[in-house]
Design a protein that fits this description.
It is built from 6 helices and 10 strands, in the order E-E-E-E-H-E-E-E-E-H-E-H-E-H-H-H. By secondary structure, the protein is of the alpha+beta class. It has a single domain, classed as VC0467-like. Strands 1, 2, 3, 4, 5, 6, 7, 8, 9 and 10 form a 10-stranded mixed beta sheet that branches.
Length: about 180
């Protein structure tokens, strides 16, 4: 399967990399120079107001997006038509946009907490790196469904995505996390 924006990468069950173990990564951008994505299932106990002090009151979830530039802030949302400069990654999921307008619309209740997710850092691969990892069978590739981001609890996302893929992936979804065996 050729990688493109809107795909998700599902970590193979035995991938031992601490950053990506049992992760689901949405590919936001893919081109000849590399790939950028955001991990969808690594929430952290940080409020957006701790990161952006003048941000309006919000309980929108903050996630670790990946190990690259961990102090950078990114966001995914489903209100692309309201935010200038947002990039549609796949149907119903947009990346970035006018941050000042986002804050204004959230302060006025037009955009709700369940419309948006924030990410610290991102997942990045240089030219050819992701293709090598795919050949090494570190990742399973699938299509993104906006329900994965906005309707599925992060703690069960990895299993849900594999289960929805069917066949042998349903069995993989049931493999216990080796850390839980300790």
């Amino acid at each position: 399967m050729k990688i493109r924006a809107g795909n998700i990468l599902i970590a193979e069950p035995f991938l031992l990399d601490n950053h990506f173990r049992r992760s689901v990564v949405l590919i936001c951008e893919h081109h000849d120079l590399g790939t950028t994505g955001l991990m969808l299932n690594k929430p952290i106990e940080v409020r957006i107001q701790e990161l952006v002090t003048d941000f309006p009151e919000s309980n929108a979830q903050v996630y670790i997006g990946g190990p690259v530039e961990p102090n950078s802030l990114h966001f995914l949302h489903n209100v692309g038509e309201m935010l200038d400069d947002s990039l549609e990654v796949c149907p119903g999921v947009y990346w970035g946009g006018d941050f000042e307008k986002l804050m204004f619309l959230m302060e006025n209740g037009v955009i709700k907490d369940n419309n948006i997710k924030f990410f610290l850092g991102y997942s990045g691969w240089s030219e050819g790196q992701l293709e090598e990892e795919l050949q090494g069978q570190s990742w399973i590739v699938d299509e993104m469904d906006s329900n994965y981001l906005f309707k599925t609890k992060p703690i069960v996302l990895w299993q849900t995505v594999l289960h929805n893929k069917g066949d042998r992936y349903t069995v993989l979804a049931q493999i216990l996390d080796s850390e839980s065996l300790n």
